[in-house]
């Protein structure tokens, strides 16, 4: 599993879970039979194979024995992967200002090679300025945030944005509604600074931005914002991420992936090409002056 050391614990859990699923299917065993072998339920095996829970060493050892994985090197590699997958990510230190269901996304984002996103309400998080982030946090928290909490949310966002500067950098392809760029979140000056930051961001070779103009005809993404994450490891399937006010969905079934990928492809074809984004942003900035 090349690149394992660069993947976050969330990604490692998914990689190990997918590998265990393939081993079980090769052994022609059901989830219920696998669960019986480790004194667990069928649903726990399902959660393990989806990478949604941590892995106990004893459970992994017993499953490898059940699946007839006897070669010492292979067993050692998978057991080490289980240990690595149980390590906490750097984002764990911010769990006082993030909901539990968001941890999985932070792990996936850190491990992704490409993120394609469609936004209808806010500038994509990886492209937000600190003051814009602060204003969004005030709007979406549901409760009053202290100045210290807001500072920590801004610090988390800034740390997340480092994926755009790593080697190799994350590739981000964002399609956003123009209405996002007219919404004065945080006030007119915060919006101006955010638009200027977007103008700088699109100069990066790993950042692509497309802006759907106001008044455009309806399109297939009327359900709301979503992201599709792709990973460099062959063991990791693409994941669709949909965020709600108090929860999030992580979709990796082939039919779901195909549907959302098709919608993104349609959006990128129907929206003005990325080379027009600079002209669009500049025109909006002029309107604000």
Care to describe what's here?
The chain is 46% helix and 11% strand. The chain is an alpha/beta fold and 289 residues long. The chain has two domains: 4-85, lambda repressor-like DNA-binding domains (434 Repressor (Amino-terminal Domain)); 95-288, Endonuclease, Chain A (2-Layer Sandwich). A six-stranded mixed β-sheet has the order 3-2-1-4-5-6, sandwiched between helices. Residues 1-6 have low confidence and may be disordered.
Number of helices: 11
CATH architecture assignment name of the largest domain: 2-Layer Sandwich
Pick out the low-confidence regions.
Answer: 1-6
Instruction: Let me know the number of strands.
Output: 6
Q: Over all CA atoms, what is the radius of gyration?
A: 21 Å
Structural class: alpha/beta
Q: On the 0-100 scale, what is the average pLDDT?
A: 89
Indicate the proportion of strand residues: 5-15%
State the shape: elongated
Distance between the termini: 53 Å
Q: Quick one: biggest sheet?
A: 6 strands, mixed
The fold-level CATH name of the largest domain is Endonuclease, Chain A
Largest sheet: spatial strand order: 3-2-1-4-5-6
CATH class of the largest domain: Alpha Beta
> How many structural units, i.e. domains?
2
* Overall helicity: 40-55%
The ordered string of helix (H) and strand (E) elements is: HHHHHHEHHEHEEEEHH
